[in-house]
Amino acid sequence: MTLTQHVRNGWYLGAWSDEIGRTLKQRWITDLPVCFYRLPDQTVTAVEDRCPHRKYPLSLGHLDDDGTLQCDYHGYRFDGQGLCVGVAEQADRPKAALRRFPLVERDGAIWIWPGDPELADESLLPDTSWLTDPNWTHVHGVVPLKARHLLLLENLLDLTHETFLHPSSIGNAAVAATPIDVTVDGDRVGFSRRMIGIEAPPFYEKSCGLTSPVDRWQDGDFYPPGIFVLNIRVAATGTEEPDGFHMKVLYGMTPGRGNETHDFYALGRDYLIDDQELTKFQHEQQLAVMQEDVDALEAQEIMYATDPGGTAESSIKSDLAALRGRRAVAKMLTREQQAGGTRPRASA
């Protein structure tokens, strides 16, 4: 795997809604510095975090009560649309504007399109209504990852690694022993795994109060270039739908600066939604599992980064979804390159 450039014509999770307020927040996304903040009406906005005067980070400036953003290097001031409205102690107004990124704020998540604004299509976003559904509860956050986002993508599309990397929590022999069905719909890649009459992994024993044997389902969907949703069902063997315990996991695999990635996550469930102890346990387990993944992926990153010749890889049947996901991202990047680039346009 040598692909390290970032697709920009696509949706990424830029921030959780509760991260962004009236304080300027910088976050690098697809090698672009982005400054997030809210206007007085609580609308969230995001601009490229470079003042057009001398490229000083706007996130080091300040935000006035009326929503005017000031660069604190030479005093350039910008309104909520990114237009320069003046410079401190100067009568003339420079003809300057900030690049503003298309955003969608929905269900407590802020999605950003770093590429061509005219191509931003909200219908490409997955259904995340469970994040605000009163019949579900969830936890969320973001974990830094010092590895390229494609490694995280393949980690999520090939969950057979649970058998070997997470045996004390969500993994056991049944995961690697059960084949997956893979589907491709345009750029989207999906997989399904049905484990029937298996031993309950420790996490599900404690989370659901189940004893073996159980049926465990995994249905994952990758929305390129950086969104993954996993639907999970666990139930005593022989239990018919809709009965059983249901969980959802959302990952926002957002490239940052260089080969660093923002690993956004949300873990939800539709049972015992008022049980705070269970919520705490599941959140702790989620973070522990993610740390095991982070350790593995950062070790992988070193191996890829120090292998410029690209040693030949070996693949097996369980890699199919991951290889399809890798191919989908590569095709998106090729389309962008053939179209002549994706640099966001400045506000008019």
From TrEMBL:
UniProt entry keywords in alphabetical sequence: 2Fe-2S, Iron, Iron-sulfur, Metal-binding, Methyltransferase, Oxidoreductase, Transferase
Domain of life of the native organism: Bacteria
Protein name (database record): Putative Vanillate O-demethylase oxygenase subunit
GO biological process terms on file: methylation
Gene3D superfamilies, A to Z: Naphthalene 1,2-dioxygenase Alpha Subunit, Chain A, domain 1, Rieske [2Fe-2S] iron-sulphur domain
InterPro entries: Cholesterol_7-desaturase, Rieske_2Fe-2S, Rieske_2Fe-2S_sf, VanA_C_cat
MF term (GO), any: monooxygenase activity
Rieske domain boundaries: 11-112
Transferase among keywords: yes
Organism: Streptomyces afghaniensis 772
Keyword Nucleotidyltransferase: no
UniProt-listed Pfam families: Rieske, VanA_C
